[in-house]
Automatic annotation (TrEMBL):
PANTHER family: MITOCHONDRIAL AMIDOXIME REDUCING COMPONENT 1, MOLYBDOPTERIN COFACTOR SULFURASE MOSC. GO terms for molecular function: catalytic activity; molybdenum ion binding; pyridoxal phosphate binding. The keyword Transmembrane helix applies. Residues 180-337 form the MOSC domain. The chain crosses the membrane at residues 15-33. It comes from the Eukaryota. The gene is Dper\GL20094. This is GL20094. Pfam families: MOSC, MOSC_N.
C-alpha cells in the first residue's frame, strides 16, 4: 500500500529529521505571517486628510429607505453598527413564511417604505397609500420566540415584532394580509458568523459582521466614484442606490482610490479598518424614488465592464470594521491612516 520507509531506504531517523525540519519551517513562516498581519493590523499614528463625510445613511429596516440625514446630528458608531437615539442600522428585517429574508432583490418597491424618527426609540413608518405605522423599539411584542434565519449564508436568530407589523408589511409588499413577518435583532452584540464571501479576508473579525447587514456593519463609498460611473451611464444614478452608510466627498487631486485605504478615521474618534472590498448584488439597480428595477440592468451592467477585477460581481466602496468607537456627523473630516 503506502510506501514504507524501508522500501525507499530512508531511515526512520532521517524521516524524523525531515519531519522536524518541516515543522520548524512551517512554524517559522506561520509565526512570521502572523507578525506581518499584526503589523498590518496595528492602528496607525499618522493621519492624512482625504475629504469630508458628505452624508450618513442609516437604514433601520433592511432593504427599505434610510432615515433622513440631518446635518449636525451625531451618530454613535459602536461594534454593532451605527445608531442615533436608540434607532439602529439594520435591526429590523422581513421574513417570509419559510423564515427566508425578504429584500428589494425580490421586491424592489420595498425601497419606498420610509421610516421617520419621531422620538428616542420611536419610528413612524410610511409607504405610498398606506396608513402610518408606529414602531417603538421599547415596546415591541416579545413572545419569546426566536426565529432562525440566515443572511448571505450566515445563520442568525431574530425575534418577532408583532402581528400588526406583519399585516402592514404583507399588505404593502405582497398585497395580502399575511405572508411576511417583521423581526428585530435582539442581541447586544454581533452574533453572526462571518459569511462565506468574507471568510478569507485576513482583517475581518467576527464582530465586524454586525446586525442584519449583508457583510459588515459599516460601508463607505467615494462619491467621485459614483460621479465617474455617471459619466458612463445614459441615466445617472443616485449614490443612495448603493446603500452605503458613509458617503465621502474626496478632496481634489487625491491620488489613491478608496480601494487602497487600509485605515479610515472619521472626525476625532471613530477609527475603521478596511476589511474587504464591497461586491454589489442586484439591489443597486432599483431606483429609490420609483421602487422599480432598471429594465436595462443599469448601473450594474456598466460597472461590470470596468469594476469587476477578478470577482464575479462588480466592486464599489469598501467594507469597514470598527476598531475604535466614536461619534460621527455630516461634514466631519475623513482621514486615511499612514504607517
Ligand atoms: C416555502 O417553502 C415551500 C416548500 O419548499 C415552497 O413550496 C414555498 O413556495 C415557499 N414559500 C415561499 C414564499 O418561498
Ligand atoms: C474617488 O473616485 C475617483 C473616481 O473613481 C478617483 O479618481 C479617486 O481617486 C477616488 N478617491 C479616493 C480617495 O478614493
Ligand atoms: C486577476 O487574475 C490574474 C490571474 O490569476 C492575475 O494575474 C491578475 O493580477 C488579477 N488581477 C487583479 C486585478 O487582481
Amino acid at each position: 500500500m503506502a510506501y514504507s520507509s524501508s522500501s525507499l531506504d530512508i531511515s526512520p531517523k532521517t524521516l524524523i529529521g525531515v519531519g522536524v525540519g518541516l515543522a520548524v519551517a512551517g512554524g517559522a513562516s506561520y509565526f512570521l505571517y502572523h507578525r506581518y498581519l499584526q503589523y498590518r493590523d496595528a492602528m496607525p499614528q499618522k493621519w492624512r486628510r482625504v475629504g469630508t463625510l458628505q452624508r450618513i445613511n442609516l437604514f433601520p429596516i433592511k432593504s427599505c429607505a434610510p432615515l433622513d440625514s440631518t446635518p449636525g446630528r451625531e451618530y454613535d458608531c459602536d461594534v454593532l453598527g451605527m445608531s442615533i437615539d436608540g434607532i439602529r442600522d439594520r435591526t429590523l428585517m422581513l421574513l417570509d413564511e419559510n423564515n427566508t429574508m425578504v429584500t428589494a432583490r425580490g421586491y424592489p418597491h420595498m425601497k419606498l417604505i420610509k421610516p421617520w424618527q419621531v422620538s428616542d426609540n420611536g419610528l413612524i413608518i410610511t409607504a405610498p397609500e398606506m396608513p402610518e405605522l408606529e414602531l417603538d423599539f421599547k415596546n415591541l411584542e416579545s413572545p419569546g420566540q426566536d426565529l432562525r434565519t440566515s443572511i448571505s449564508g450566515a445563520p442568525v436568530d431574530a425575534k418577532l415584532c408583532g402581528d400588526r407589523f406583519n399585516k402592514w408589511f404583507s399588505q404593502f409588499i405582497l398585497e395580502k394580509n399575511t405572508g411576511l413577518r417583521l423581526v428585530h435583532y435582539p442581541y447586544p452584540k454581533p452574533v453572526k458568523i462571518i459569511c462565506d464571501d468574507l471568510k478569507n479576508m485576513p482583517f475581518m473579525r467576527q464582530e465586524d459582521s454586525g446586525t442584519f447587514n449583508d457583510g459588515t456593519s459599516y460601508m463607505l463609498m467615494n462619491l467621485s466614484s459614483v460621479d465617474d460611473l455617471n459619466t458612463r451611464l445614459k441615466n445617472p444614478v443616485e449614490p443612495l442606490q448603493f446603500r452605503g452608510g458613509f458617503e465621502i466627498k474626496c478632496d481634489e487631486h487625491e491620488p489613491y482610490a478608496e480601494d487602497n485605504w487600509q485605515w479610515v478615521r472619521i472626525g476625532d474618534e471613530a477609527v475603521f479598518r478596511q476589511v474587504a472590498p464591497r461586491t454589489l448584488c442586484i439591489v443597486p439597480n432599483v431606483n429609490d424614488n420609483t421602487g422599480k428595477r432598471d429594465v436595462e440592468g443599469e448601473p450594474l451592467k456598466t460597472l461590470k465592464s470596468y469594476r469587476t477585477f477578478n470577482h464575479s460581481s462588480p466592486l464599489l466602496g469598501i467594507h469597514l470594521g470598527l476598531r475604535q468607537p466614536g461619534k460621527v456627523k455630516a461634514n466631519d473630516v475623513v482621514y486615511v491612516g499612514e504607517k
